[in-house]
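Regression test attached.
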Amino acid sequence: MAIPPPPFAPGCWPTTGPTSSRWNFQASETPPAPPVARRRRPPGGPAVKKGAPRGAGPPPRRKGPFAGDDPHPEKSLPFLYLNTNKRGITLDIESPTGRGILDRVLAETDVLVENFSPAERERLSLDIESLSTSNPGLVSVSITPFGLTGPRRDSPAEDIEVFAWSGHLYHSGDSDREPLHNALEQAWYVAGVNAATAATTAFFHRLFTGRGQQVEVSASECLASHMVQAIPYSNYMGAIKGRRPIRGSGFEELMPARDGYVVPSVQGSQPWSVVADLIGLEELKSDKFSSGSGRIEHGEELKELVTQGLARWERKPLFEASGQRRLVFGMAQDSGDLYACPHLHERDFFVEVDHPVAGRAEYAGMGPRLSSDEYEITQPAPVLGEHNREIYLGRLGFNDQDLVCLRAAGVI
Amino acid sequence: MQRESPLSGIRVVDLSRVFAMPYVGAYLADMGAEVIKIDTHHAAFIDTTRTLTGPYPDNDPGKEFWNRAGTYQTLNRGKRSLTLDLRSEPGMAILLDLISISDVVLENFTPRVTRRFGLDYPSLQTVRPDLVLVSNTGYGHSGPWSDFGAMASALEPTHGAGAFMGYLEPDAEGTLVPSETPNKIGNSYTDFLACWSAQMAIMAALYRRALTGQGTWIDLAMYQNGVSFLGEGLLDYAFNCRSTRRLGNRHESMSPQGCYPCQGQDRWVVLTVRHDQDWQAFCNALGQTDLAADSRFADPISRHRHQDQLDKIITAWTGSKTQEEVVAILQSYGIPAAPVLDGEQMLSDQQLRSRGLFETVEHPESSGIGRREYLGRGWKLSEADVSIRGPAPNLGEANDYVLEEVLGLSDSQVKPLKGDGVIGEELAGGSAPGVVPLQRQAELGWIADYRENFLP
C-alpha cells in the first residue's frame, strides 16, 4: 500500500523522516484554530497561515497582552505563542482571484484548519463536499464554539460563554460565590488539542481508506467532556455536583503558607501520620484525625490546626519535603516561579525564540516528550505576509510582476 | 458505505488508574481499538474509581459495587478487563506476553514503580520493539522532582493555572481589584489536559509507526504539560515581567464581561459586550437606552474603567429574570450570553442533545445500572465510526478471553492462576464504600443540590 505523506508532522517526527511537498493550510481569524497547527512542524510541507490583507491584521494579532505592552500587530503574545513554525501568507479569499488561488492550494493540501462560523463557512463554500471534488484526500478541520449543527451553532460566544455552556464554569470557583473563569482562554487551547488528535486520527484513517473527511470540533463539547463526575452524579442519583465547598479541613485546597499558597493533600498511599509529621504540629497527630471520617467530623478544628502548621512553611521547601515523603502536596506558582523552576530547566522545557519585531524570549515548549522527539521551535510566528514571496513565487509559480498585480488588486 | 473504525486492529494494554489515562483508553476504545484494562482483584491495589469515587445508582453501591460507579463507567467504557496480580511472577509474565502482541501501553505509575516492575521503555522494547508507550506521571521521568507523586487538584496551581485565576476583591476605596489569592479551575482540570495531550501524542506515534515501523515512548509529565497550556501567560512574564493576571470574570479588553446572578438558587449567566455595536444593542436589550448616552460607558476604555458601576446595573437586571429569559433576550440582540449550566441542565440541553454528545449504554440486567447516558467526545469524523462500544467491564470479565483466546493458554494453565490469586473476578479484601445520604452530602457541601425521588 502506498503511504501518503503526513499532514503536518508533530514535534516528535524526525526531521529526516518522510517529507511532503503538500500543504497544511490554516485559514483562521480568531482562536481556536492556531493551537492545532502549532503543535506540528512540517518536515517538508509547509504549515501555511493565511492572514487578512487589510487593516491591522486578523484579530489574534490584535489580542493582548503584547510584548513590551506595545499593542503592535506583530507583538501579540497569544499570536506569537500559538503560531511558531508556520509560514504566513496574506490572501483575500473573498475576491474571485483570491478564491481561485485558495482553490489551487486546497487541491494540493493534506489538511485544512479553519474556524469560520458555520454561516460564514457555508457562504465561503468550505464544506467538505465542495472541497473534496478536487481533492478527495483532504482532511478538513472545522473548529467552532458549538459545532456545525444544532440550534446554537450560530450563537456568538467568547471563551467565558463556551465555558458556561459546557458545564465547566459551574464547577469553578468557590461555592459561596459566583462561578469563576480563568483569565487565559483555555476553551480554545482544549479545542485545539482535541482538534489535533481528531485531525491526526482522520489522517491515520486515510492511510487505510485513501479518503479524507470532515473533522468537526466543538469547543464547548470538548470542555463538556471533562464532566465525568458531574454527569453521572446527575443521571445516576439526581445530585448536582457544585463548586468546591468552603467548609472542610483545608486539604486538597489552596491554603496560605509563609510566602504564598500551597495545597496540602491526604491523597496517595501514605498514612495520616506522615502528613501530620510533615506539617509538624503535635496536635495533628491526634487519633481523631487519622481517618477520613474523623477528618470530616472534626473538619473545622483540623483546618485551624493545618493553617497554623502551614504558616511555618514556605511553599517550595514544603512541596519538596512532601514529595520526598511520597505525599502529593502542591504549591501555587506564578510565571516567574515557572521560569525559575529547576525541574523544567533540567527537562529543557523552555525554547529560546527570536522574533524579528517582538524580540527574543524563552517560550514554553512541548507538553508531552517523545522518545523520537526532535521537536524544536525552529522559527518564530510569521509576521504578516512574511512568506508571500516564498509561497507565491516558489510554490505557486507566480512571478514578481504577478505579485505586483495581486498586491495592487488587494488580493495579497 | 459502512464507516470503519480508525483504530480497528489496534490493541491497547491499559495499566492506568483513576482519571487521565483511563479516559485516554476509553477514547481509543471509542475509536475501535481493543483496550484491555489490567485490573486487580486485590482491593489494596485496585483502581479507586471502582471503589471510592462513585457515584452509584441511587446512591447505593450495591453488592458488586466495584462494577457500578458512574465515573468508573465513563472512564472505562468499551474496554475488556483482565485481572492480574503484578506482584507475582506469573502475573508479570502474562502481562509481558500480552504487551508483546499489543500496539499501545498506557501506564501512570511513578518512575520508581515503573523501574521496579521493569515497565520502562527500554525493557518493554525488548518485548515489543515498535511499541507506543505512554508513561503518565506528575513530573516526568527526568528532573529533580521526577519521583514525586502527584494528583490533579494539587498539580493545577503548581503548574501555574492559579496565577491566572482569582476573584476580584474591593480595595480600600471599594473598587474591585485583582486578588492576591489564586483559585482553581477545579474538576481535575489538569487530568484532562494530560488526557488530550496523550491522545494527540499517541495518534502521532501510531502514524509515525505506520510510516517508519518505529515505536515511541511518550514521557507525559502533567506538570510540564499543564504549563504548556499557559503560553501567553508565561510570555507576559518574559516580555513584561508580569507574573500573574487575575481578572475575576472580566476580560482585559471587552467590557462589560461578567457572571451575574439570576432568579433561582445558584443560577448565573455570563455575557460579553465585545465592542461599541454590542454596547448599543446591549442597552436596547436592557430597555435602558439612556445608558447608551451615558459618558461613563461611551467607549471600551470608559466601560472598562467603570465596570463596577456597570456590574451593579447589570446585576439588577439579570436578578429580576431567569437564566433562560436573560440569555434569550441578549442572544436576540446578538450579544454573547450563556447560562452557567449544571450537570442536570447539561443533560437536557437541546444543543448537546441534538448533536448526540450523550451516548446511551445498555448495561447487563445483573448490574442493576440499566440504561444510562455517557459523555461522548467533543469532535466528530464524517467518515469514521467513533462511538461508545459498550459499558465498562466487570472486574476480570475478560480473563478467559484474554488468557485463552488472545494468549492461547490452556484451561489447565489458567486454573492455577485462579487458585493462586493471580486472577480473580471478586474483590479480595476491602469493604464497601460508606453511603453518605444526599442530604448529608449537601450539608457538607460535597454536592450543591439533589432531587428527591430521583428517577433516571
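Expected vs. actual: identical. Residues 283 and 305 of chain A are 8 Å apart (CA to CA).
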